[in-house]
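Human: Here is a favour to ask of a fellow structure person. Comparing notes only helps if you start from a blank page. I am asking you to supply a protein in sequence and structure-token form. Write it directly below this note and I will take it from there.

Assistant:
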Amino acid sequence: MFAPLIALLGISNPVIISLIRICLLSGTVIIAYRAFIKPKEGIVWLLIITSFNVIGEVAKFPYFGNITLFHITLLFFIAGWLTKSIRESIPLLPRGIIFNLVLLFLMVTGISVLYSPNRNKAVVDFIRLCALVLLFITTTRLSYTKKDTDKFAKTLVALGLANAGLSYFQLITRKFIVSSARMGVIRRIPHFLRASGFFFDPNKFAGLMMFCFLMAFALLIYTQRKKLYSAILVLLGSTLLLTFSRSAWVGTFSGCVVILLFAKKPVKKIFVFLLVISIFFYTATQLPRVGVFMRHRVKSLFHPGSSSSSIVRKDMAISAVKIFLDHPMGIGWRGFPVAYHKYMLPGTPRVGLTGREHVIMESHSLPFTIIAEFGIAGVVLSFLLVFHVLKYIVTTFKTLKDDKLRAVFISLSGIWCAFLVRFCFYSDIFDNLFWIGFGLLITIGRASRKLVANSCR
């Protein structure tokens, strides 16, 4: 129990280990209890726990994987919401086209499990997806005030700063909490370490930094504390660069553009943003050692043939389309890894995304995963969901009056769009932050509308 954290502490005395486990278990009970009695506080705890990733592992099971503090807190968070809803006669399920489409997509996923060639994996992952959809629904049912919104925004920025500081400490001292990820050898320069925080995968850590960066960016644009948030953005942005995660770079850029589109004089601000980003990237590419890897990653964005991982991603997208043509209704949830070898293009690099020979978990592009595994129904539902969420964002923005609510709502809109773009290159539908952000986007938009309605009475 709590093996990763105990290993991190480097303690071998069994008595001390037992005391630490008792303290950690007590802390887990307290957090779970707080999430149960105060679901709004539970969201903050879920964000904090997500940022600590691997050290939140409580126990490990051979088939279902790790049981973490996030899972336990999520269970009590949902149970607390259900108890509150039943006690106060609040409808359990929300109404609206967005919720209906999410539930329809979940239903299509469940049906596809029945004919999936990878059924065991599909069943486990379907249970995980159901839990995250419950997280989304529960989050949307919370009643957020301006004070709650402010607390959430500050917590998120503080988490970003803490993780950025940790990453710099790890990169400078080369003392990593978890096994460090390395960039490959380029031009005979030794491996370069990637910022990863408490995560095994730097790409997952980059998703957290993207989330925090976009929140701080919106607060810079829509609040008065320009100098403070400018300094914060430099630290968060440089940490995001050092993850070398191209999908997070592109997603963050897209999210920033979306945030600026809602600002006053958007064209001018976008021009300034592009100028600052260009200078920032150019400076990074000129740094010793870091610059070589930075130029290589940037080049691969515009020239997919320049790196094996980009070639594999492109070939898997083509394979996904071929699977769709043979299976218009989809091959089934988690079926792509099984079918990929049959549809793999000749000449695809034998070693690509994982550094091992064809260890494929998904197509590394959510749109193409949906095309291959869910077919026509998945594509139609996805387009409808994206359309109605974007419509909700635009219509809600017109009702925003309070500066703080406006900043947080627009940041969450940019974050949601950033995840959509990122999912085109890094397919991680199980990202906790995406579902938390999606739920908060809905509930904070509703809070803003209530504030306007009350002011008109």
